Amino acid sequence: MADPSPTARTTPGGINLQDGYSTKITLAADSDISFWEKTVTPPGIDGGDAIEQTTMHNTTWRTFRPRSLATLTECVLTALYDPDVYDEILAVLNKETTITVTFSDGSTLAFFGYLRLFELGDHVEGDPPECTITIQPTNYDATNDVEAGPVMDEVAGT
């Protein structure tokens, strides 16, 4: 087998996001839920830990191989909230639905998931109370009982 050889980096296609403002999260189960996004961490993609392939026949290096499946990581946001959101959260907590992340350029990432965690921050004089919401992607279409990955809808020019 040949040794690895360097590859030159070329100019990427597309257009990078210029600003994170304004990124929003929509839960199909309650599209006007009473929170106002301040920060959003969209889900990432994780290939998983390496699978070790080292044997007694290796002489210098431990060897690894990649996994076959990918994981869509959690989506976390901080937000201002109306106290009435408690009832709304209870209605959607652990309920599988379509989640849509709308990026600042208008592109959207839609995936199946559920609101897993709602945590309140400290209430401090002079600061608006915030909450942290964690959304867990499932990659599972519960209606049709099938695996279903995320769908990216890019705007023109990206």
Rg: 20 Å
- Which fold name corresponds to the CATH topology? Pnp Oxidase, Chain A
Strand content: 35-45%
Structural class of the secondary elements? mainly beta
Main sheet record = 7 strands, antiparallel
Name of the top-level CATH class: Mainly Beta
Which architecture name does CATH use? Roll
Please describe the topology of this protein:
Elements: E1 24-27, E2 35-41, E3 45-46, E4 51-52, E5 64-65, E6 71-72, E7 75-81, H1 85-92, E8 97-102, E9 108-120, E10 130-137, E11 140-141, E12 146-147, E13 151-153
Antiparallel strand pairs: 1-8, 2-7, 3-6, 4-5, 7-10, 8-9, 9-10, 9-13, 11-12
Can you give a write-up of this model?
This protein has one helix at 85-92; strands at 24-27, 35-41, 45-46, 51-52, 64-65, 71-72, 75-81, 97-102, 108-120, 130-137, 140-141, 146-147, 151-153. The radius of gyration is 20 Å and the shape is extended. 13% of the residues are buried. The mean pLDDT is 96. The protein has one domain (24-50, 61-153): Pnp Oxidase, Chain A (Roll), CATH 2.30.110.20. The protein has 158 residues and is mostly beta strands. The protein is 5% helix and 38% strand.
Brief summary of the model shown:
The chain has 158 residues and is mainly beta.
Feature tags:
7-stranded antiparallel β-sheet; Pnp Oxidase, Chain A; 13 strands; single chain; extended; two-stranded antiparallel sheet; 158 residues; 38% strand; mainly beta
